[in-house]
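User: Predict the structure for this protein chain, please.
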Amino acid sequence: MSEIKILPENISNRIAAGEVIERPASVVKELIENAIDAGAGSIVVEIQKAGRKLISVTDNGCGMDADDALMCLEAHATSKIKDRNDIDNIRTLGFRGEAIPSIAAVSRFHLTSRRHDASEGSTVAVICGKVVENGPVGSAPGTRIAVKELFCNTPARKKFLRSDATEEKHIQEHVYMLSLPYPGIAFELLIDGRCVFSSPAHNNLLPRLKTYFGKNYASNMVKIGYSSNGITVTGYTARHGLTRNTRREQRTFINGRPVESQALYRGISEGYSGLIEKGRFPPAILFLRLDPLDVDVNVHPAKREIRLRHDTLVAQAVTEAIRIALRQAPSPTLAFDSRLPLQSLLAGAEIAYQPPQMETPEFTPNFNTPSPFSPENTQLTTASCENTVPDSGTETKHASAIPQEHVKDIDEATEEYCLPGSGTVKLLGFLDRTYILALADSGLLVIDQHAAHERVLFERLLNADDNQVLSQRLLLPITLELSRSETTFIERYKPVFAKLGFEIQPLSSNTVMVSAIPASLKQENAGGLLRDILSDLLDDSSAGRRKLDLETVARSACKAAVKAQDTLTFKEAHSLLRQMADCHLPFSCPHGRPTVINISVRELEKRFGRK
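Assistant: Here is the predicted structure, written as C-alpha coordinates:
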Protein backbone atom coordinates (compact mmCIF):
# COMPACT_ATOMS: atom_id res chain seq x y z
CA MET A 1 0.00 0.00 0.00
CA SER A 2 1.34 3.42 -0.95
CA GLU A 3 2.72 5.52 1.91
CA ILE A 4 2.56 8.77 -0.09
CA LYS A 5 -0.82 10.52 -0.03
CA ILE A 6 -2.25 13.80 -1.24
CA LEU A 7 -3.01 16.04 1.72
CA PRO A 8 -6.64 17.09 2.20
CA GLU A 9 -7.34 20.62 1.02
CA ASN A 10 -8.09 21.94 4.50
CA ILE A 11 -4.68 20.75 5.78
CA SER A 12 -2.68 21.97 2.76
CA ASN A 13 -4.38 25.37 3.03
CA ARG A 14 -3.37 25.67 6.68
CA ILE A 15 0.23 24.76 5.83
CA ALA A 16 0.29 27.40 3.08
CA ALA A 17 -1.18 29.92 5.49
CA GLY A 18 1.62 29.18 7.94
CA GLU A 19 4.20 30.16 5.33
CA VAL A 20 2.53 33.45 4.41
CA ILE A 21 0.67 34.53 7.58
CA GLU A 22 3.11 34.65 10.49
CA ARG A 23 1.31 37.22 12.65
CA PRO A 24 -1.43 39.90 12.37
CA ALA A 25 1.03 42.25 10.69
CA SER A 26 1.40 39.72 7.84
CA VAL A 27 -2.33 40.05 7.11
CA VAL A 28 -2.07 43.85 7.11
CA LYS A 29 0.86 43.67 4.69
CA GLU A 30 -0.84 41.35 2.21
CA LEU A 31 -4.11 43.31 2.17
CA ILE A 32 -2.39 46.69 1.74
CA GLU A 33 -0.29 45.30 -1.12
CA ASN A 34 -3.46 44.19 -2.89
CA ALA A 35 -5.04 47.60 -2.34
CA ILE A 36 -2.02 49.39 -3.83
CA ASP A 37 -1.99 47.06 -6.82
CA ALA A 38 -5.72 47.80 -7.28
CA GLY A 39 -4.88 51.45 -7.89
CA ALA A 40 -6.27 52.77 -4.61
CA GLY A 41 -5.98 56.47 -3.84
CA SER A 42 -6.99 55.99 -0.21
CA ILE A 43 -6.38 53.09 2.20
CA VAL A 44 -7.79 52.82 5.74
CA VAL A 45 -6.45 50.17 8.14
CA GLU A 46 -8.41 49.38 11.31
CA ILE A 47 -7.10 47.14 14.09
CA GLN A 48 -8.71 45.83 17.27
CA LYS A 49 -6.90 43.99 20.07
CA ALA A 50 -3.58 44.07 18.19
CA GLY A 51 -5.23 42.28 15.24
CA ARG A 52 -6.45 39.33 17.26
CA LYS A 53 -10.07 40.51 17.19
CA LEU A 54 -10.19 42.46 13.90
CA ILE A 55 -8.07 43.50 10.96
CA SER A 56 -9.88 45.60 8.38
CA VAL A 57 -8.44 47.18 5.22
CA THR A 58 -10.67 49.43 3.09
CA ASP A 59 -9.62 50.93 -0.26
CA ASN A 60 -11.16 52.84 -3.15
CA GLY A 61 -9.34 50.85 -5.83
CA CYS A 62 -10.74 49.18 -8.94
CA GLY A 63 -12.83 46.65 -6.99
CA MET A 64 -14.02 43.19 -8.10
CA ASP A 65 -17.17 41.75 -9.65
CA ALA A 66 -19.01 38.74 -8.24
CA ASP A 67 -16.94 36.18 -10.15
CA ASP A 68 -13.60 37.65 -9.11
CA ALA A 69 -14.74 37.98 -5.50
CA LEU A 70 -15.09 34.20 -5.39
CA MET A 71 -12.13 33.41 -7.63
CA CYS A 72 -9.68 35.32 -5.42
CA LEU A 73 -10.29 32.70 -2.72
CA GLU A 74 -8.86 29.93 -4.88
CA ALA A 75 -5.21 28.94 -4.35
CA HIS A 76 -2.77 30.57 -6.79
CA ALA A 77 -5.50 32.72 -8.33
CA THR A 78 -4.03 36.03 -9.53
CA SER A 79 -4.70 38.74 -12.09
CA LYS A 80 -1.07 39.88 -12.13
CA ILE A 81 0.66 37.07 -14.01
CA LYS A 82 -0.52 35.94 -17.44
CA ASP A 83 2.42 33.87 -18.71
CA ARG A 84 5.92 32.71 -17.74
CA ASN A 85 7.55 35.92 -19.01
CA ASP A 86 5.66 37.94 -16.38
CA ILE A 87 7.47 36.06 -13.61
CA ASP A 88 10.79 37.65 -14.65
CA ASN A 89 9.24 41.10 -15.10
CA ILE A 90 7.20 41.59 -11.95
CA ARG A 91 6.06 45.16 -11.37
CA THR A 92 3.36 44.59 -8.74
CA LEU A 93 3.54 43.93 -5.01
CA GLY A 94 1.31 40.86 -4.69
CA PHE A 95 1.55 38.28 -7.44
CA ARG A 96 1.61 34.77 -5.96
CA GLY A 97 -2.15 34.42 -5.45
CA GLU A 98 -1.64 32.90 -2.00
CA ALA A 99 -2.54 35.76 0.35
CA ILE A 100 -6.36 35.81 0.30
CA PRO A 101 -6.95 32.02 0.50
CA SER A 102 -4.24 31.71 3.16
CA ILE A 103 -5.85 34.41 5.32
CA ALA A 104 -9.35 32.98 4.81
CA ALA A 105 -8.12 29.52 5.84
CA VAL A 106 -7.25 30.63 9.39
CA SER A 107 -9.90 33.24 10.25
CA ARG A 108 -13.46 34.44 9.93
CA PHE A 109 -13.09 36.30 6.65
CA HIS A 110 -15.48 38.78 5.05
CA LEU A 111 -14.98 40.50 1.69
CA THR A 112 -17.10 43.26 0.16
CA SER A 113 -16.17 44.71 -3.23
CA ARG A 114 -17.65 46.77 -6.05
CA ARG A 115 -16.28 47.91 -9.38
CA HIS A 116 -16.65 51.62 -10.14
CA ASP A 117 -18.81 50.97 -13.19
CA ALA A 118 -21.15 48.55 -11.37
CA SER A 119 -24.47 49.43 -9.72
CA GLU A 120 -23.98 47.03 -6.82
CA GLY A 121 -21.23 45.15 -5.08
CA SER A 122 -20.59 41.57 -4.00
CA THR A 123 -19.96 40.03 -0.62
CA VAL A 124 -18.34 36.74 0.39
CA ALA A 125 -18.09 35.31 3.92
CA VAL A 126 -15.65 32.51 4.76
CA ILE A 127 -15.09 30.63 8.01
CA CYS A 128 -11.76 28.80 8.25
CA GLY A 129 -11.55 28.27 4.50
CA LYS A 130 -15.21 27.36 3.88
CA VAL A 131 -17.48 29.77 1.99
CA VAL A 132 -20.64 30.25 4.04
CA GLU A 133 -22.22 33.21 2.26
CA ASN A 134 -21.99 35.11 -1.01
CA GLY A 135 -24.23 37.40 -3.01
CA PRO A 136 -24.96 40.99 -4.07
CA VAL A 137 -24.76 43.88 -1.64
CA GLY A 138 -24.87 47.65 -1.66
CA SER A 139 -21.39 49.11 -1.14
CA ALA A 140 -19.06 51.95 -2.08
CA PRO A 141 -16.66 51.43 -5.03
CA GLY A 142 -13.51 49.62 -3.98
CA THR A 143 -12.87 46.75 -1.59
CA ARG A 144 -13.15 46.14 2.14
CA ILE A 145 -11.76 42.99 3.73
CA ALA A 146 -12.43 42.25 7.41
CA VAL A 147 -10.48 39.48 9.15
CA LYS A 148 -11.84 38.42 12.53
CA GLU A 149 -10.52 35.93 15.08
CA LEU A 150 -7.22 35.33 13.30
CA PHE A 151 -5.79 31.82 13.92
CA CYS A 152 -9.13 30.70 15.35
CA ASN A 153 -8.47 27.16 14.07
CA THR A 154 -4.71 27.15 14.75
CA PRO A 155 -4.38 27.71 18.52
CA ALA A 156 -0.68 26.83 18.45
CA ARG A 157 0.00 29.77 16.13
CA LYS A 158 -2.08 32.07 18.31
CA LYS A 159 -0.13 30.96 21.37
CA PHE A 160 3.11 32.19 19.83
CA LEU A 161 1.85 35.74 19.30
CA ARG A 162 3.63 38.37 21.40
CA SER A 163 2.25 41.12 23.61
CA ASP A 164 -0.26 43.62 22.20
CA ALA A 165 2.41 46.34 22.22
CA THR A 166 4.77 44.17 20.18
CA GLU A 167 2.12 43.09 17.66
CA GLU A 168 0.95 46.70 17.26
CA LYS A 169 4.54 47.76 16.67
CA HIS A 170 4.88 45.25 13.82
CA ILE A 171 1.57 46.34 12.29
CA GLN A 172 2.53 50.00 12.42
CA GLU A 173 5.92 49.26 10.86
CA HIS A 174 4.28 47.41 7.96
CA VAL A 175 1.98 50.37 7.33
CA TYR A 176 5.01 52.66 7.34
CA MET A 177 6.93 50.43 4.96
CA LEU A 178 4.10 50.10 2.45
CA SER A 179 3.00 53.73 2.52
CA LEU A 180 6.41 55.45 2.32
CA PRO A 181 7.01 54.58 -1.37
CA TYR A 182 3.51 55.84 -2.25
CA PRO A 183 3.01 59.37 -0.84
CA GLY A 184 0.34 59.90 -3.52
CA ILE A 185 -1.93 57.44 -1.68
CA ALA A 186 -3.70 58.63 1.49
CA PHE A 187 -3.22 56.32 4.49
CA GLU A 188 -5.05 56.15 7.81
CA LEU A 189 -4.40 53.78 10.73
CA LEU A 190 -6.90 53.24 13.55
CA ILE A 191 -6.11 51.06 16.57
CA ASP A 192 -8.90 50.20 19.01
CA GLY A 193 -11.01 53.07 17.65
CA ARG A 194 -8.24 55.64 18.04
CA CYS A 195 -6.64 57.32 15.01
CA VAL A 196 -2.90 56.70 15.26
CA PHE A 197 -2.18 58.77 12.18
CA SER A 198 -3.86 60.13 9.08
CA SER A 199 -1.53 60.95 6.21
CA PRO A 200 -3.18 62.68 3.22
CA ALA A 201 -2.00 62.11 -0.32
CA HIS A 202 0.87 64.42 -1.30
CA ASN A 203 3.37 64.72 -4.12
CA ASN A 204 6.19 65.10 -1.58
CA LEU A 205 7.31 62.49 0.97
CA LEU A 206 8.44 65.02 3.60
CA PRO A 207 4.97 65.64 5.15
CA ARG A 208 4.60 61.89 5.63
CA LEU A 209 7.97 61.68 7.37
CA LYS A 210 6.86 64.41 9.78
CA THR A 211 3.57 62.61 10.44
CA TYR A 212 5.18 59.23 11.04
CA PHE A 213 8.47 60.06 12.73
CA GLY A 214 8.16 63.65 13.92
CA LYS A 215 9.45 67.05 12.86
CA ASN A 216 12.81 66.59 14.55
CA TYR A 217 13.45 63.39 12.59
CA ALA A 218 12.41 64.98 9.29
CA SER A 219 14.59 68.07 9.87
CA ASN A 220 17.65 65.86 10.42
CA MET A 221 17.27 63.96 7.16
CA VAL A 222 19.09 64.86 3.93
CA LYS A 223 17.45 64.44 0.55
CA ILE A 224 19.04 62.01 -1.92
CA GLY A 225 18.95 61.99 -5.70
CA TYR A 226 21.40 59.92 -7.74
CA SER A 227 21.46 57.79 -10.90
CA SER A 228 24.15 55.60 -12.46
CA ASN A 229 24.37 52.39 -14.51
CA GLY A 230 20.60 52.19 -14.83
CA ILE A 231 20.16 52.41 -11.03
CA THR A 232 18.30 55.38 -9.52
CA VAL A 233 18.53 56.12 -5.80
CA THR A 234 16.20 58.64 -4.15
CA GLY A 235 14.91 59.24 -0.63
CA TYR A 236 16.42 60.58 2.59
CA THR A 237 19.35 59.76 4.84
CA ALA A 238 20.43 61.02 8.27
CA ARG A 239 22.70 63.97 8.88
CA HIS A 240 25.93 63.51 10.82
CA GLY A 241 25.26 62.68 14.46
CA LEU A 242 21.82 61.05 14.08
CA THR A 243 22.27 57.32 14.70
CA ARG A 244 20.45 54.41 16.30
CA ASN A 245 21.64 51.27 18.05
CA THR A 246 19.95 48.94 15.51
CA ARG A 247 19.37 48.84 11.77
CA ARG A 248 15.60 48.97 12.29
CA GLU A 249 15.28 52.52 10.92
CA GLN A 250 17.17 51.75 7.73
CA ARG A 251 14.17 51.28 5.45
CA THR A 252 14.98 50.21 1.91
CA PHE A 253 12.79 49.74 -1.16
CA ILE A 254 13.34 48.44 -4.68
CA ASN A 255 10.82 49.29 -7.39
CA GLY A 256 8.28 50.31 -4.72
CA ARG A 257 8.67 47.10 -2.72
CA PRO A 258 10.01 47.02 0.89
CA VAL A 259 13.01 44.69 0.87
CA GLU A 260 15.78 43.35 3.07
CA SER A 261 19.10 43.23 1.26
CA GLN A 262 22.62 42.98 2.64
CA ALA A 263 23.86 44.78 -0.47
CA LEU A 264 21.78 47.84 0.41
CA TYR A 265 22.81 47.76 4.07
CA ARG A 266 26.45 47.44 3.00
CA GLY A 267 26.04 50.44 0.71
CA ILE A 268 24.64 52.54 3.56
CA SER A 269 27.47 51.53 5.88
CA GLU A 270 30.11 52.41 3.29
CA GLY A 271 28.42 55.75 2.64
CA TYR A 272 28.99 56.68 6.28
CA SER A 273 32.45 55.16 6.51
CA GLY A 274 34.55 57.18 8.93
CA LEU A 275 31.56 59.25 10.07
CA ILE A 276 29.90 56.98 12.66
CA GLU A 277 31.19 54.73 15.40
CA LYS A 278 31.00 50.97 15.18
CA GLY A 279 27.66 49.53 16.29
CA ARG A 280 25.65 52.63 15.39
CA PHE A 281 23.29 52.85 12.41
CA PRO A 282 22.10 56.05 10.70
CA PRO A 283 18.40 56.11 9.75
CA ALA A 284 17.74 56.06 6.02
CA ILE A 285 14.75 55.78 3.68
CA LEU A 286 16.02 54.74 0.26
CA PHE A 287 14.03 54.06 -2.91
CA LEU A 288 15.85 52.29 -5.71
CA ARG A 289 14.64 51.88 -9.28
CA LEU A 290 16.25 49.31 -11.53
CA ASP A 291 15.33 46.89 -14.28
CA PRO A 292 12.91 44.23 -12.91
CA LEU A 293 14.94 41.65 -14.85
CA ASP A 294 17.82 42.38 -12.45
CA VAL A 295 15.73 41.65 -9.33
CA ASP A 296 14.39 38.28 -8.22
CA VAL A 297 11.50 38.97 -5.83
CA ASN A 298 10.26 35.38 -5.89
CA VAL A 299 12.71 34.08 -3.29
CA HIS A 300 10.59 34.09 -0.12
CA PRO A 301 6.86 33.30 0.34
CA ALA A 302 6.38 36.53 2.29
CA LYS A 303 8.48 38.41 -0.31
CA ARG A 304 10.77 39.92 2.36
CA GLU A 305 14.04 38.90 0.79
CA ILE A 306 15.22 39.50 -2.77
CA ARG A 307 18.12 38.48 -4.95
CA LEU A 308 20.04 41.04 -7.03
CA ARG A 309 21.82 40.17 -10.24
CA HIS A 310 24.38 42.97 -9.80
CA ASP A 311 24.53 43.44 -6.04
CA THR A 312 27.97 45.12 -6.10
CA LEU A 313 26.78 47.81 -8.51
CA VAL A 314 23.68 48.40 -6.39
CA ALA A 315 25.74 48.74 -3.18
CA GLN A 316 28.12 51.16 -4.91
CA ALA A 317 25.20 53.27 -6.15
CA VAL A 318 23.80 53.54 -2.62
CA THR A 319 27.21 54.45 -1.20
CA GLU A 320 27.82 57.16 -3.78
CA ALA A 321 24.29 58.56 -3.40
CA ILE A 322 24.76 58.94 0.36
CA ARG A 323 28.25 60.44 0.10
CA ILE A 324 27.10 63.06 -2.41
CA ALA A 325 24.04 63.94 -0.31
CA LEU A 326 26.08 64.34 2.89
CA ARG A 327 28.73 66.36 1.08
CA GLN A 328 26.16 68.78 -0.34
CA ALA A 329 23.98 69.04 2.77
CA PRO A 330 24.03 72.39 4.57
CA SER A 331 25.48 72.35 8.08
CA PRO A 332 22.85 72.34 10.84
CA THR A 333 22.64 75.50 12.95
CA LEU A 334 21.73 75.92 16.61
CA ALA A 335 20.24 79.02 18.20
CA PHE A 336 20.82 79.13 21.95
CA ASP A 337 21.26 81.31 24.99
CA SER A 338 24.99 81.92 25.42
CA ARG A 339 24.61 81.62 29.20
CA LEU A 340 23.77 77.90 28.97
CA PRO A 341 26.52 75.24 28.78
CA LEU A 342 27.05 74.03 25.21
CA GLN A 343 27.21 70.38 26.32
CA SER A 344 23.73 70.59 27.87
CA LEU A 345 22.27 72.21 24.76
CA LEU A 346 23.71 69.55 22.50
CA ALA A 347 22.44 66.82 24.81
CA GLY A 348 18.96 68.33 24.68
CA ALA A 349 19.13 68.34 20.88
CA GLU A 350 20.28 64.70 20.92
CA ILE A 351 23.60 65.59 19.30
CA ALA A 352 26.57 63.66 20.57
CA TYR A 353 29.60 65.92 20.94
CA GLN A 354 33.12 65.06 21.96
CA PRO A 355 36.10 67.38 21.49
CA PRO A 356 38.76 65.90 19.22
CA GLN A 357 41.50 64.08 21.06
CA MET A 358 45.10 64.79 20.10
CA GLU A 359 47.74 62.17 20.60
CA THR A 360 50.79 63.59 22.39
CA PRO A 361 53.95 61.96 23.75
CA GLU A 362 53.22 63.11 27.28
CA PHE A 363 50.37 64.47 29.30
CA THR A 364 49.69 65.40 32.92
CA PRO A 365 46.38 64.13 34.34
CA ASN A 366 44.21 66.72 36.01
CA PHE A 367 43.03 65.15 39.24
CA ASN A 368 41.38 68.31 40.59
CA THR A 369 37.97 67.32 39.24
CA PRO A 370 35.72 65.14 41.43
CA SER A 371 35.96 61.43 40.80
CA PRO A 372 33.17 60.32 38.46
CA PHE A 373 32.87 57.19 40.56
CA SER A 374 32.30 59.00 43.84
CA PRO A 375 29.15 57.99 45.74
CA GLU A 376 27.46 61.16 44.46
CA ASN A 377 28.20 60.43 40.81
CA THR A 378 29.10 57.26 38.94
CA GLN A 379 29.52 58.80 35.50
CA LEU A 380 32.70 57.91 33.69
CA THR A 381 34.38 60.85 31.99
CA THR A 382 37.79 61.32 30.51
CA ALA A 383 39.81 63.60 32.74
CA SER A 384 41.04 66.78 31.12
CA CYS A 385 44.72 66.80 30.24
CA GLU A 386 47.31 69.48 29.76
CA ASN A 387 49.61 69.04 26.80
CA THR A 388 53.29 69.34 27.66
CA VAL A 389 56.04 70.04 25.21
CA PRO A 390 59.31 68.29 26.08
CA ASP A 391 62.55 70.23 26.18
CA SER A 392 64.93 69.72 23.29
CA GLY A 393 67.12 67.57 25.48
CA THR A 394 64.33 65.31 26.70
CA GLU A 395 64.95 61.64 25.98
CA THR A 396 62.29 59.89 23.88
CA LYS A 397 60.24 57.51 26.00
CA HIS A 398 59.14 54.13 24.66
CA ALA A 399 55.56 52.96 24.93
CA SER A 400 54.86 50.25 27.47
CA ALA A 401 51.93 48.52 29.03
CA ILE A 402 52.14 50.99 31.88
CA PRO A 403 52.39 54.55 30.46
CA GLN A 404 55.52 56.30 31.73
CA GLU A 405 53.61 59.46 32.52
CA HIS A 406 51.71 57.51 35.21
CA VAL A 407 54.72 55.89 36.92
CA LYS A 408 54.67 58.51 39.69
CA ASP A 409 50.97 57.92 40.19
CA ILE A 410 51.50 54.14 40.39
CA ASP A 411 54.13 54.50 43.07
CA GLU A 412 51.79 56.69 45.08
CA ALA A 413 48.63 54.66 44.39
CA THR A 414 48.72 52.32 47.37
CA GLU A 415 44.95 51.86 47.58
CA GLU A 416 43.96 48.20 47.43
CA TYR A 417 40.63 46.42 46.98
CA CYS A 418 39.27 43.00 47.81
CA LEU A 419 37.42 41.02 45.12
CA PRO A 420 35.92 37.64 46.11
CA GLY A 421 38.25 34.78 45.22
CA SER A 422 41.03 37.12 44.07
CA GLY A 423 42.14 38.50 47.41
CA THR A 424 43.83 41.87 47.54
CA VAL A 425 43.80 43.74 44.20
CA LYS A 426 46.10 46.58 43.21
CA LEU A 427 45.85 48.66 40.03
CA LEU A 428 48.71 48.37 37.50
CA GLY A 429 47.70 50.11 34.30
CA PHE A 430 45.74 49.92 31.05
CA LEU A 431 45.81 47.88 27.85
CA ASP A 432 44.41 49.13 24.52
CA ARG A 433 42.18 51.69 26.29
CA THR A 434 39.76 48.81 26.93
CA TYR A 435 41.24 46.66 29.68
CA ILE A 436 42.37 47.55 33.19
CA LEU A 437 45.34 45.55 34.46
CA ALA A 438 45.51 44.75 38.17
CA LEU A 439 47.70 42.62 40.45
CA ALA A 440 45.98 40.10 42.74
CA ASP A 441 47.10 37.37 45.11
CA SER A 442 45.85 34.88 42.54
CA GLY A 443 47.79 36.40 39.63
CA LEU A 444 47.19 39.02 36.93
CA LEU A 445 43.63 40.37 36.48
CA VAL A 446 42.46 41.72 33.13
CA ILE A 447 39.26 43.75 33.63
CA ASP A 448 36.96 44.76 30.78
CA GLN A 449 36.15 48.37 31.68
CA HIS A 450 32.83 48.37 29.78
CA ALA A 451 31.54 45.11 31.26
CA ALA A 452 32.70 46.13 34.74
CA HIS A 453 30.96 49.49 34.57
CA GLU A 454 27.79 47.82 33.29
CA ARG A 455 27.78 45.62 36.42
CA VAL A 456 28.28 48.66 38.65
CA LEU A 457 25.44 50.61 37.01
CA PHE A 458 23.16 47.58 37.02
CA GLU A 459 23.51 46.95 40.74
CA ARG A 460 23.26 50.64 41.65
CA LEU A 461 20.01 50.91 39.67
CA LEU A 462 18.50 47.81 41.26
CA ASN A 463 19.80 48.04 44.81
CA ALA A 464 19.13 51.67 45.63
CA ASP A 465 17.16 52.21 48.82
CA ASP A 466 13.53 53.26 48.34
CA ASN A 467 14.18 56.47 50.27
CA GLN A 468 17.28 57.35 48.24
CA VAL A 469 17.03 60.07 45.61
CA LEU A 470 17.45 58.16 42.35
CA SER A 471 16.79 60.90 39.82
CA GLN A 472 18.83 63.77 38.48
CA ARG A 473 16.88 66.61 36.93
CA LEU A 474 17.84 67.54 33.37
CA LEU A 475 18.85 71.14 32.86
CA LEU A 476 16.57 71.24 29.82
CA PRO A 477 13.71 68.72 29.63
CA ILE A 478 13.87 66.68 26.44
CA THR A 479 10.87 66.22 24.15
CA LEU A 480 11.00 62.98 22.17
CA GLU A 481 8.82 62.05 19.21
CA LEU A 482 8.19 58.30 19.35
CA SER A 483 5.91 55.77 17.70
CA ARG A 484 2.52 55.05 19.25
CA SER A 485 3.68 51.61 20.36
CA GLU A 486 6.64 53.21 22.19
CA THR A 487 4.51 55.82 23.99
CA THR A 488 1.93 53.16 24.86
CA PHE A 489 4.75 51.01 26.22
CA ILE A 490 6.04 53.87 28.39
CA GLU A 491 2.55 54.59 29.74
CA ARG A 492 2.02 50.92 30.54
CA TYR A 493 5.30 50.55 32.42
CA LYS A 494 5.63 54.09 33.76
CA PRO A 495 5.90 52.87 37.40
CA VAL A 496 8.84 50.64 36.44
CA PHE A 497 10.70 53.50 34.76
CA ALA A 498 9.90 55.80 37.71
CA LYS A 499 11.23 53.24 40.19
CA LEU A 500 14.62 53.43 38.45
CA GLY A 501 14.67 57.23 38.36
CA PHE A 502 13.19 58.10 34.95
CA GLU A 503 10.65 60.91 34.97
CA ILE A 504 8.74 60.61 31.70
CA GLN A 505 5.48 62.38 30.92
CA PRO A 506 3.45 61.45 27.80
CA LEU A 507 2.35 64.62 25.97
CA SER A 508 0.47 63.06 23.06
CA SER A 509 0.07 59.75 21.24
CA ASN A 510 3.61 60.01 19.89
CA THR A 511 5.40 62.54 22.13
CA VAL A 512 6.89 62.31 25.62
CA MET A 513 8.86 64.71 27.80
CA VAL A 514 11.84 63.45 29.81
CA SER A 515 12.53 65.61 32.88
CA ALA A 516 14.84 63.34 34.89
CA ILE A 517 16.96 60.22 34.49
CA PRO A 518 18.63 57.87 37.00
CA ALA A 519 21.35 59.62 38.99
CA SER A 520 23.90 56.99 37.99
CA LEU A 521 23.56 57.68 34.25
CA LYS A 522 25.17 60.38 32.16
CA GLN A 523 23.04 63.33 31.07
CA GLU A 524 24.82 63.62 27.75
CA ASN A 525 22.47 62.48 24.97
CA ALA A 526 19.86 61.29 27.47
CA GLY A 527 17.25 61.26 24.70
CA GLY A 528 19.33 58.97 22.55
CA LEU A 529 19.89 56.68 25.54
CA LEU A 530 16.15 56.38 26.19
CA ARG A 531 15.54 55.60 22.50
CA ASP A 532 18.11 52.80 22.69
CA ILE A 533 16.52 51.44 25.87
CA LEU A 534 13.05 51.42 24.26
CA SER A 535 14.43 49.75 21.15
CA ASP A 536 15.81 46.94 23.30
CA LEU A 537 12.72 46.54 25.45
CA LEU A 538 10.29 46.45 22.52
CA ASP A 539 12.29 43.78 20.77
CA ASP A 540 10.71 40.33 20.73
CA SER A 541 13.59 38.82 22.65
CA SER A 542 12.86 41.02 25.68
CA ALA A 543 9.52 42.66 26.40
CA GLY A 544 7.59 40.53 23.93
CA ARG A 545 8.22 37.32 25.81
CA ARG A 546 7.69 38.25 29.42
CA LYS A 547 6.34 40.91 31.70
CA LEU A 548 8.64 43.88 32.03
CA ASP A 549 10.41 44.24 35.38
CA LEU A 550 13.05 46.43 36.99
CA GLU A 551 15.85 44.07 36.10
CA THR A 552 15.01 44.14 32.39
CA VAL A 553 14.97 47.95 32.21
CA ALA A 554 18.12 48.23 34.32
CA ARG A 555 19.92 45.80 32.03
CA SER A 556 19.04 47.94 28.99
CA ALA A 557 19.98 51.14 30.82
CA CYS A 558 23.52 49.79 31.20
CA LYS A 559 24.15 51.01 27.66
CA ALA A 560 25.25 54.21 29.39
CA ALA A 561 28.38 52.45 30.66
CA VAL A 562 31.82 53.55 29.57
CA LYS A 563 32.78 51.98 26.26
CA ALA A 564 35.88 50.26 24.98
CA GLN A 565 38.45 52.80 23.74
CA ASP A 566 37.20 55.42 26.23
CA THR A 567 40.30 56.77 27.95
CA LEU A 568 40.19 56.45 31.74
CA THR A 569 42.45 58.19 34.23
CA PHE A 570 44.02 56.24 37.08
CA LYS A 571 41.65 58.00 39.45
CA GLU A 572 38.65 56.76 37.46
CA ALA A 573 40.03 53.23 37.26
CA HIS A 574 40.62 53.22 41.05
CA SER A 575 37.03 54.32 41.58
CA LEU A 576 35.72 51.61 39.25
CA LEU A 577 37.67 48.91 41.10
CA ARG A 578 36.41 50.25 44.42
CA GLN A 579 32.81 49.96 43.27
CA MET A 580 33.37 46.53 41.74
CA ALA A 581 34.53 45.35 45.16
CA ASP A 582 31.15 46.47 46.56
CA CYS A 583 29.14 44.60 43.91
CA HIS A 584 27.20 41.50 44.85
CA LEU A 585 28.19 39.70 41.60
CA PRO A 586 31.26 41.52 40.30
CA PHE A 587 32.52 38.90 37.86
CA SER A 588 29.91 39.12 35.09
CA CYS A 589 28.09 41.94 33.35
CA PRO A 590 24.24 42.01 33.34
CA HIS A 591 24.28 40.29 29.93
CA GLY A 592 26.38 37.35 31.11
CA ARG A 593 29.82 38.30 29.78
CA PRO A 594 32.80 38.09 32.13
CA THR A 595 34.10 41.32 33.64
CA VAL A 596 37.42 39.84 34.83
CA ILE A 597 39.85 37.26 33.49
CA ASN A 598 42.37 35.91 35.99
CA ILE A 599 45.74 34.76 34.62
CA SER A 600 47.20 32.74 37.48
CA VAL A 601 50.87 32.55 38.42
CA ARG A 602 50.77 28.82 37.65
CA GLU A 603 49.51 29.57 34.14
CA LEU A 604 52.30 32.11 33.59
CA GLU A 605 54.87 29.61 34.76
CA LYS A 606 53.52 27.04 32.28
CA ARG A 607 53.58 29.57 29.47
CA PHE A 608 57.18 30.54 30.19
CA GLY A 609 58.24 26.90 30.49
CA ARG A 610 59.16 27.16 34.17
CA LYS A 611 56.94 24.24 35.17
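The two ends are 71 Å apart (CA to CA).
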